[in-house]
Amino acid sequence: MNSRPTSSFYQSLRFRFGLLFNSLLFLCVSIIVYSLYKNAKTELDRSFSLQLSSAAGAVLQKIEIDPISVPVPKSGEFFRIVYDNGVKKTRLIDNLPQDVTDKEKWRVISLNKDPENGGRISVEFALSAENYHSGIQKLRRLLYIYLPVAFLISFLGGYLLSGFFLRPLRRIIRNAGEVDLEHITLLSQPHTRDEFYHLTDALNRMLMRIDEQAKQQAAFFTMASHELRTPISTMLTELQVFNREALDPDSGKLLDNQEQEVKRMKALVDNFLWMSQIESGNLRTGKSDLDLAEMVLELSEAFRKQMMINRQRFRIDLSPVDGDFRISADKNQVEIIINNLMSNAVKYGKTGTTIDIKIYRNERRGIIISNAVDHVIENPEQLKGQFLRETFHKDGFGLGLWISAVLSGKNNAELSLDSINNRFSATLEFDDVENFKKA
Q1: Is residue 306 pLDDT above 70, yes or no?
Q2: Which residue in 23, 36, 108, 264 is a FRET match for 290, CA 20 to 30 A apart?
Q3: Do the beta carbons of residue 17 and residue 166 sit within 8 Å?
Q4: Nearest 10 degrees: CA dihedral of 229, 230, 231, 235?
């Protein structure tokens, strides 16, 4: 059987919608933030340049040559004033720092003025750029922090919003998973005629088609099974009453083979009939008082001939010997269950071995049927699936244990299968009944 595929967190639609929403939002936010950063940087640069040129211009305006008058540098002001009269250059004042050429620390501007008495006055004015660069770095750090935070917030927002919008889809999935194919009920449709409404409508139409096809299939199986049972039973009866003593050995063997094939066909028809009743929901379970020990003894007689061929034998154990093994269940259905389990034990058990049948009573009443096998059976519980059979054997149809498991549930019983040390066992355990609590 194929295992159900596992779903990882990152494979969910909710995660994908959250990631898509986050990616789009993050892209938009990144473009907007980068644009704001560029504008802010441009404005800071323009403001700093304006401050630099304004301060240098103010110094230049205060310089006079005749008589010589130069401003004294204030705190934080650094400039160099040079007067060129055409013959020589005179440095009137110079407090520029030595590392003024370092553009990461300083911004420098040069201004000139031509006085009326001739010559040229040059001013090189420097302002510290550390605060400017510090502001730019601070702005970048804020962006580096805000963008990841914005990414996380947008992802969480998208994840939560997608979870909110996908709630109708999860409700549809949950309701669809609870649909019982034996009694199909349509899904409740959303009030809003959106995509979820149309999805629910499509699923309901599909369920109606499945229900119709299932009913047609069940009707066909029931009709075909009933039509086939009568001629098959007639053939089996005629084969069983045929006088084998008048036949030669080869003809007798051929007749035995034909009888086995007819029995096999009858079992298939019976299984199809049970399957159609189960899947159509028409199976009715009655209650009557049954004795498990008597039923096992009666059913074991039907396997006498086959067990002689296989050189097998039943060993029936009652625990306790004088115990009360009565139950309240549907007689026909319990007979089918026990007959299937005994048939499997005879069919798949090793030749020349003993098949153990233990009928017990403790807190519950039950039967354990175990037989030796010549191979390892992995995952024996899976054999209760429909149309599943042990791969070592081609005989059988894969329906007997499935039918037995379903009928067990209908009769308040539990069927469990196990295989240990090349010994296969089937345990059928009934819930204790209040009417039979006396010792």
Answers
A1: yes
A2: 264
A3: yes
A4: 90
Residue pLDDT, tens place only, 362-401: 888 999 999 998 887 888 888 887 655 554 444 555 678 8
Between CA 128 and CA 310 the distance in angstroms is 107
Q: Which amino acid is it at 238?
A: E
Out of 132-141, 264-273, 332-341, 391-400, the most confident range is: 332-341
CA 295, CA 317: separation in Å to the nearest integer?
14
Long-range contacts of 19-26 (CB under 8 A, 24+ apart): 19/155, 19/158, 20/158, 21/154, 21/155, 21/157, 21/158, 21/161, 21/162, 22/151, 22/154, 22/155, 22/157, 22/158, 25/150, 25/154, 25/158, 26/147, 26/150, 26/151, 26/154
Phi, psi of 64 (to 5 degrees): -130, 150
Convert the pLDDT of each residue in 408-425 to its tens digit. 988 989 999 999 888 999
pLDDT in tens, 79-122: 888 888 888 888 888 888 888 888 878 888 899 988 877 888 89
Distant-in-sequence, close-in-space partners of 64: CB < 8 Å, separation ≥ 6 = 70, 115
For 222, phi and psi rounded to 5 degrees? -65, -45
**DSSP H or E stretch at residue 375:** none
Beta bridge partners of 179: none
CA separation for the pair 326, 294 (Å, rounded): 9
Distance CA 134, CA 129 (A): 8
Closest by CA position to 369, among listed 347, 343, 342: 342
**Residue range 4-13, pLDDT digits in tens:** 445 565 666 6
Element (H, E) at 135: helix 130-165
